[in-house]
């Protein structure tokens, strides 16, 4: 199984013609981002597609649903697809629904979204993200049991933050691993979704837990015969990235953190592959 690492454009201030060549040089296989309309500096769909195609990168789309009802979230997902499909995504991630949705509404929403996915022919994964339906392990489990076609973008940093601990729910994590389409390799801790530095020894326990969950995903994917696994080291800018009080100076360089985490993931995957 091949590892492909994507670079998110979240928090990247540079124009595409500056940052994309730099990311290619750093060894990234693709770009993950929302539609061009959500990017800074007046980027157009043609600009984004041109940068991706020029450098032979894969594109992983990030989409967002909104509204007050299931019908409105479905309609907003269709509108998001209209914006990202011209970019030829290999996979589509989605922040879907709201955490306040009753279970019945959540189930109804995902039944509609998987029908849309089936017509697309492109895998769609729904992110385990705060404020969304899959913000905690238990709601996620309940929906996945009812709608087995649902795939996930697994970002377990949010679950650690929401639970205020490293969750010990092996059956839920096994189910999530089975449904994982894409992985966000950020590390969360009890008081937040992003540690200050993934290499900091004070977060060794959190790093070990996340890496164990990621390897569980890889094992399931390899057992299933998948040829590629995709990962984004999705560390984000302030306020995800901690800052000093008053000056708001970031405590770390975001690009350095993302690049180091990409290296960590490559080494972890290589070590796991040698044992698998």
Automatic annotation (TrEMBL):
Coiled coil: none
InterPro entries per record: Xyl_isomerase-like_sf, Xyl_isomerase-like_TIM-brl
Membrane spanning residue stretches: none
SUPFAM superfamilies linked to this entry: Xylose isomerase-like (SSF51658)
One Pfam short name: AP_endonuc_2
UniProt superkingdom: Bacteria
Residue span, Xylose isomerase-like TIM barrel domain: 24-185
Protein's name in the database: Xylose isomerase-like TIM barrel domain-containing protein
């Amino acid at each position: 199984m091949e590892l492909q690492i994507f670079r998110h454009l979240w928090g990247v201030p540079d124009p595409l013609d500056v940052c994309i060549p730099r990311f290619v040089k750093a060894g990234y296989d693709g770009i993950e981002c929302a539609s061009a309309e959500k990017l800074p500096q007046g980027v157009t769909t043609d600009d984004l597609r041109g940068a991706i195609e020029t450098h032979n990168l894969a594109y992983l789309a990030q989409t967002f649903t909104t509204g007050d009802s299931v019908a409105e979230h479905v309609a907003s997902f269709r509108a998001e697809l209209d914006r990202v499909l011209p970019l030829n995504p290999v996979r589509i991630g989605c922040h879907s629904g709201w955490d306040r949705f009753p279970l019945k509404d959540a189930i109804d929403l995902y039944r509609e979204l998987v029908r849309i996915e089936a017509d697309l022919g492109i895998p769609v994964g729904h992110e385990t993200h705060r404020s969304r339906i899959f913000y905690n392990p238990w709601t996620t489990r309940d929906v996945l049991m009812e709608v087995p076609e649902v795939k996930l973008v697994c970002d377990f940093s949010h679950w650690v933050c929401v639970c205020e601990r490293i969750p010990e729910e092996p059956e839920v994590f096994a189910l999530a691993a089975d449904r994982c389409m894409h992985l966000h390799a950020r590390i969360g801790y009890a008081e937040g979704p992003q540690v200050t530095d993934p290499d900091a020894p004070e977060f060794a326990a959190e790093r070990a837990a996340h890496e164990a969950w990621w390897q569980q995903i890889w094992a399931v994917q390899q057992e299933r015969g998948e040829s590629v696994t995709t990962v984004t080291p999705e560390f984000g800018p302030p306020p995800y990235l901690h800052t000093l009080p008053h000056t708001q100076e970031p405590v770390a360089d975001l690009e350095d953190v993302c690049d180091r985490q990409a290296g960590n993931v490559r080494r972890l995957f290589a070590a796991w592959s040698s044992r698998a």
